[in-house]
């Protein structure tokens, strides 16, 4: 009985969600092309990963005319460590001398090896390359290190940022994703991030980001999703790639450790 009530509520929820996704608010709603793809069972995020991301991966750039593929493709295949890298970031990087995420690792290869000005973290190009690497890593289990001393420091700092109340409404990530978990906000279930929290089943959020967002009509990364929550909570958005965001990403992603990447996902 209880189960079917919940299921019913979920179905109503997703029907509403759908109506919203296809409503024609300019710039907000899904495009007709993407909606057509979606109806054929094709995730526009995968098309973006393969075409835009894969295209950039192969594209020679800079004074030496090198593409990512020039260095990272061996015998026609993207080398294993690059093809699975998405499962292990954020992690300590020797070149950076600190913990960085995959988006930032791409930037380092661009400046250090391709010798070009890196695509900014906000750019469609950086997101395309990132999404491509996450797409290649589909099926790899997330395994973010939280035990080395530096990773532990980031984990603790990430947890701190998660619990920090900010903005005019004095909200933290924790208020919505732990204290209010199981409740509904604007027709969406508030879920703990991770397998479960206090007996409430959660969402292994990091296994499906970057995701194509139907309401935004584009692919967003996990940090960009965090910014969406920050905006919704009336907070000043923390900058992409900042220590706070990388720590938050490491913390949230580690809660999905063990889950297989299903990237790019498809989200409202
Ligand atoms: C001239 C060769 C070269 C080019 C071009 C290059 N890289 Fe790299 N890349 C490297 C080397 C060398 C490393 C390893 C650095 C280390 O771990 O010491 C690396 C590391 C990486 C890693 C991290 C792998 C891991 O094990 O953590 C990723 C991801 C990556 N590159 C992606 C890219 C992408 C995407 C591009 C194109 C934008 C690119 N690289 C361009 C040489 C290159
Ligand atoms: C005002 C309440 C609220 C606050 C504060 C909030 N979120 Fe969210 N968050 C939501 C809602 C609602 C969703 C959409 C539900 C969904 O997609 O499962 C969501 C979705 C997410 C998702 C995607 C979940 C998934 O499975 O795709 C992540 C990750 C996330 N939030 C992280 C954060 C982080 C990190 C913070 C703090 C910076 C935060 N949220 C603050 C309400 C909130």
TrEMBL record:
It catalyses: S-sulfanyl-L-cysteinyl-[SoxY protein] + thiosulfate + 2 Fe(III)-[cytochrome c] = S-(2-sulfodisulfanyl)-L-cysteinyl-[SoxY protein] + 2 Fe(II)-[cytochrome c] + 2 H(+); L-cysteinyl-[SoxY protein] + thiosulfate + 2 Fe(III)-[cytochrome c] = S-sulfosulfanyl-L-cysteinyl-[SoxY protein] + 2 Fe(II)-[cytochrome c] + 2 H(+). GO terms for cellular component: cytochrome complex; periplasmic space. Residues 1-23 form the signal peptide. Residues 53-142, 205-260 form the Cytochrome c domain. Keywords: Electron transport, Heme, Iron, Metal-binding, Periplasm, Signal, Transferase, Transport. Heme c 2 binds at residues 173, 176-177, 229. Its cofactor is heme. It is found in: Periplasm. Its EC number is 2.8.5.2. GO terms for molecular function: electron transfer activity; heme binding; metal ion binding; oxidoreductase activity, acting on a sulfur group of donors, cytochrome as acceptor; transferase activity. GO terms for biological process: sulfur oxidation. The keyword Hydrolase does not apply. The active site is at 229 (cysteine persulfide intermediate). Binds 2 heme groups per subunit. Heme c 1 binds at residues 68, 71-72, 109. NCBIfam families: thiosulf_SoxA (TIGR04484). Belongs to the SoxA family. This is SoxAX cytochrome complex subunit A. It comes from Persephonella marina (strain DSM 14350 / EX-H1).
């Amino acid at each position: 009985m209880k189960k079917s009530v919940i299921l019913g509520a979920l179905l109503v929820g997703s029907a509403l969600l759908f109506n919203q996704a296809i409503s024609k608010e300019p710039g907000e709603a899904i495009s007709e092309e993407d909606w057509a793809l979606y109806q054929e069972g094709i995730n526009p995020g995968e098309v973006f990963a393969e075409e835009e991301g894969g295209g950039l991966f192969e594209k020679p750039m800079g004074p030496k005319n090198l593409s990512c593929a020039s260095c990272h493709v061996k015998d026609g295949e993207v080398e294993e460590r690059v093809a699975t890298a998405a499962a292990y970031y954020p992690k300590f990087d020797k070149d950076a001398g600190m913990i960085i995420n995959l988006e930032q690792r791409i930037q380092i290869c661009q400046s250090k090896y391709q010798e070009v000005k890196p695509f900014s973290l906000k750019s469609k190009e950086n997101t395309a390359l990132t999404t491509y690497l996450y797409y290649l890593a589909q099926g790899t289990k997330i395994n973010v290190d939280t035990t080395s001393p530096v990773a532990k420091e980031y984990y603790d700092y990430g947890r701190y940022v998660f619990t920090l109340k900010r903005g005019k409404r004095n909200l933290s990530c924790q208020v919505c994703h732990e204290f209010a978990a199981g409740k509904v906000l604007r027709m969406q279930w508030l879920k703990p991030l991770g397998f479960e929290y206090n007996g409430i089943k959660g969402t292994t959020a990091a296994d499906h980001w970057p995701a194509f967002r139907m309401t935004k009509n584009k692919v967003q990364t996990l940090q960009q999703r965090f910014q969406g929550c920050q905006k919704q909570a009336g907070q000043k958005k923390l900058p992409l790639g900042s220590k706070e965001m990388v720590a938050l990403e490491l913390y949230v992603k580690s809660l999905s450790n063990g889950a297989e990447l299903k990237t790019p996902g498809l989200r409202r």
